[in-house]
Write a structure and sequence with these properties.
The complex is a heterodimer of chains A (1021) and B (462). With 1021 residues, chain A is an alpha/beta fold. Chain A is 30% helix and 19% strand. The N and C termini of chain A lie far apart (113 Å). The chains are: A alpha/beta (1021), B mainly alpha (462).
Chain lengths: 1021, 462
Amino acid sequence: MAKKSLQQKSVVWSVVSVTTNRSTAMTENNKYWRGIEDQSNPELSEKLAQNEFSNEISQADFLGNDELAESSTSRRDFLKFMGFSTAAATLAACEAPIVESIPYVVKPDSLTPGIANYYASSFYDGYDFASVLVKTREGRPIKIEPNKDAGYNGATNARVQASVLSLYDGARMHHPMVDGAATSWGEAVAKAQSLLTANSVVLTRTVISPALKTAIAKLGLRHVSVDAVSQSNRADVYEVLTGVRALPTIELAKARLVFAVGADFLGDWGGENLNGAYAAARKPGSDMLRHIQAESGLSLSGANADVRIKAKVSEYESVLAHVYNKVASAAGVATVSAPALREDIKLSVENVANELIAAGSGALVMNGLNSASAEKLAAKTNELLASAALNTSKLDFTATGSDSDFAALLEDIKSGAVTSVMTFDTNVLHFSTAMASLADKVSLISIADRLDETASKAVVALPMSHYLEAWSDAIPVSGVYTVGQPTISPLFDSKSAVEILNTLAGGSESAIDLIKASASAQQSSKGWNALLHDGFAEVSAEAVSSGMIDMTGVAVSAPLKGLEFYTYTKAGMGAGNNANNPWTYELPDPVTRLSWDNYIVMSAADAVAFGVEVKAQSNGSMNGTTINITVDGTTLENVPVWIQPGQTQGSIGLAVGYGRTEAGKVGNNVGVNANALLAPAVNYAEAAVAASEVEHGFASVQLAHTMMGRKIVNEINLPTFLSGNAKEWNEKPTFESYKGPLTSFEANLWDDQDHETSHMWNMSIDLNSCTGCGACVVACSLENNVPVVGKDEVRRHRDMHWLRIDRYYSSDMTKEVAEEEGVGAIEKYAKMEVPSESPSVVFQPVMCQHCNHAPCETVCPVGATVHSREGLNHMAYNRCIGTRYCANNCPYKVRRFNWFNYQVNDKFTDVNPSQDDYGRMVLNPDVTVRARGVIEKCSLCIQRIQMGKLEAKKDGRQLTDGEFTTACAQACGSGAIVFGDVNNPKSEVSHLKQEDRAYHLLEEVGTQPSIFYQTKVRNRA
Amino acid sequence: MHYESPVRNPLILGDKSYSDITNDIAKPVESKAPRSWWIAFSIAFVMFLWGVGCILYTIGTGIGVWGLNKTIDWAWDITNFVWWVGIGHAGTLISAVLLLFRQKWRMAINRSAEAMTIFSVIQAGLFPLIHMGRIWMAYWVMPIPNQYGTLWVNFNSPLLWDVFAISTYLTVSTVFWYVGLIPDFAMIRDRAINPIQKHIYKLLSFGWGGKAKHWQRFEEVSLVLAGLATPLVLSVHTIVSMDFATSVIPGWHTTIFPPYFVAGAIFSGFAMVQTLLLIVRKIFKMEDYINIEHIEMMNIVIMVTGSIVGVAYITELFIAWYSGVEYEQYAFLNRATGPYWWAYWAMMSCNVFSPQFMWSKKLRTNLVFTFIISIVVNIGMWFERFVIIVTSLHRDYLPSSWSMFSPTFVDIGIFVGTIGFFFVLFLLYARTFPVIAQAELKTILKSSGENFKKHHDEHGAH
């Protein structure tokens, strides 16, 4: 049988090979019959194989449906319908550009999915200016980086870092609005134009854009600019002096001694970012800058100062006058009459004056009071001292609004001379109660990003594109021209500001043409492409006349006897432009460490007098008393009070930018509007305070405020640093052993990994450079998709920040004092918890320390957190089962647990951007969004490390130092954070590790961290 | 018959014969449940359901429904875990260690003590599970071969040791308990009239025939299991203590923890046995079997272990001072004088001071007083774990991260739920299982029974 079939098979094979055109190779595959039919009837099987369909279906059967034949729809009708639908679909497609996100059919040359593109741009919102690089992924801007090559303010503060999220804010205006209804641009512009008459006024924040100025000029209307945080009276002084309305710039590198009165220059007072220059000037050494601050509330600058004098805002002028008088008498110039100073600060102020005289041209007096007299006193003092640091020829234009113009406008509205006002990017009805009360007397046209307090009252509201969607330009400072370019198509039906204003003025140019025209008018050396690439160009500076400060009209007002009320800006909120941005709220204030609120800051002595208390609750949250404050007949009710160490007695402050009602779901009804009591133009006013029954819950991230005598922030004074032995002032903990005393690195029981051959990532954090500004915290949240958890969760101490900036106050009780006075341990520690009334303040950024002997790694039952040879402590989210043992065993308490499903849980809908279709777009695609129930923590931006390593590998080269860095280090304007490979002897971080000031946090625990700190040095004896 | 010195007090009171013992012990199983049982069961069941609800809410929503925060990542969950594990210890100690030491007074209480062990270990085992952020991944703590190649559990982690310790403990305790139950189930089977009941007990008693060979095997297995269980008495709580002792947190990182935890566990376990048996003997009228002699013995154990725990507390304080470690010193100072001083002093007064009353014979033989102290001790031992966990965590190295803890209704609900669950199990047990190991008890009737002792006294040894 077997033999027979073999023979037959060969027959079949020959048939197949003859009857088909298949290749021999294929026929050879056909060695077996597929069935008995193959053998018995090869012709039929062949035929079957060639026919696609085994049975023919007759067309008649297929189409011969009787019902179909009876249908009234003929074939002709069908073709008509089809033709119509195709035409309609084509027309519909023509109507609007496709906005859906679709995969690329033809990939743009410049864009590779997975690879970020960076575009130079500039940020200006009437308060902050920054030259930035916008990181985009697949066409979405997801991160703002500082443009460190830029000519001016190539640094990003917390607000600028957070600004990218405002792009994806669903509360922005989606369409032009007329009378509260959405409409088209054509109609809205026509309506606006019909409202604009010859006596209309354009009311704006400070405008620094030449293109915008041209467009506004083209309107031919009266232009008034007013700022939410006013520097108007200061600008007036320099307008007279230089002929240009602007503020002087400051070159801290040329200063040896800075005396700032109420000037929070580290909190970006005046628009110029001085953090970098300040940190550079304060590098410990014999020429270290000394900083003395006189102020009422504890500001960032005051917290960093070497000496701080507590003066009420109403005393600023007298402080400046006394310093001036001393300097003037030394220089033989006429003095001014000034009220006597308080006894307790008199001597300190006198000492300051002497120091200033001694420092001569190295001295600099800064004034933060919006007062011409104060500014003149400061400026004249600088002039007499020939201060080198004050530059009155290079001018800063970022805060030039005029309070007097605005006051005149209000008068004209009141008198009926002005009947329509067009606001541009200013929420004037929020910060000016005077304007708000007159809003009914004018027709408002509002160019704004959202229907805010002003735009919602406007007849016509025109949506302005976010700066990341718009073309813009700016001259922030003499001689520097910057452009801002769109990095994404407008998400909503909005247009670039410059295009809107130009269209209203009758122009028809597109935004890019307007900016191009403006750029060519600047006659910069760079061509358009180079300008766009760099984001800035040098241009010829505006001519400035020089002269002497004229002291006529200087009147020093007498300090308030009663309780004074003033307003200030917070690091997160600034002037209030990011009012619907959750990161702005979640970022704890660097000084108070409170998030999500504004509150009265009050001294402990006043708190006792007014019966105010702030108490920790059983769950660690803080609750406090509220008060009703009355200023000039206006009362703000139930304002929470925070008892602030370092606050001057008799002076209470409230941050501006809060109390919004039309900002959006995040910002509405958070805090109170400080400007309801005090207009931006006014510095302070007498306040009456009454107790209120309502209790307020604070969102405090820090419960204990002192270091309890522990060496956490190592802090020394300059003379110690200069003369002392580093082994004494930066003593390393040692352990007694049979080998003699060993450091925690030598006393080792571990089988260590090889940390020598490959990279070893380390980070140096210079506590002397860190000003506590919080830019790194926001940058980290952005880079690493850190969830926003909202006020209630922050109150419960469940903030998710991977990087926090601890703030400690000094205490009057120290170990030395206790020993001297014979205070017992219990009393000593109880008193150590109480901050001093005039504390020294230190900031310490703390993130995962990437311990090489990590306590977290040994305790995880499933090995979800493990160590790398490169010195990193990895966290495998997917492996984590959430026992939280690692978080308990972390001496630095940097591990964060996902208590809820922040991406879905209803509790976080209003605050967490990742619950919003727009907000989700800001998520960094390189970083996993963590699930509920897992631990997360700082990874030292592992995604950046891996990217950098891969790039180098692709190029077949060694990594170079500084090729990439972590988000925090990149955002740090003062260069306090340096990241790199310590195994690379050329790296900056390897040098820093050898510094005398370097130490590890809690070195005695033996964790051997990869992060190390540099001792803080205060320039005082 | 084994002779026992007349100095020793009788362990079985009343004029009991073998059949009296059988009748007395089978009575709760054979008779209808009293009203008080139904009331107690209803309350326990409601508590249990409330706990189930809270657990489901936690699993559905997230651990965030508890009062934990970024600093205090364990609080009531692990407090309850350690507390329940500790309570369990007395059962094993009584049945295993006292068996090896031939302490005959254990025979009246070992069955219930072991039942308590198993039920409390069940409660304890719940907490490590539900405290996980992702309970659905709980099986990852088992060293199960997987598709991820070399992915394995971390044998360095005390939590992993816990997994093995607790599961071993639960298994051995259950087997040991069950083996002891076989002759007693057989006794009920033989007396059962209801065919269903008879059938069930028939299955449960594994065909026990009471033959000499059966008894011999029974004795052998009991002895082997007692030998296996004895090291567990020490190992389980030692390992639980290592969850803390191997960490770097001041207040946790203490070498005294293993013996201190074991003593504390026995201490709390005996207190719980007291609480339960004082109720059981009253309700089921078993005063003759669980008599003042037993109560007193257990009170002495409570007094001794309470004092050991007290010495441990003082030693901790001394070592903190003596070590010269700043963080350690502050941790203990903070315990006693910080924001949680009340928890510390509650612990001190309940655990160290209250058992000292037991030095007085009058007090340790007073049932009401004993009952109160037994409750007080368990409150104290709960506070001990709370103090260790929360006060150590809430103020550790960096003051910037210091925090406070306050339980939410869910924290409380789950704890209450486990108490309910425990009593649901215990009450069901008391109605369906012979609560006293009658087979064992009968072996000492002729030596330690009151009437036989009296008989000896009257008629001499022979």
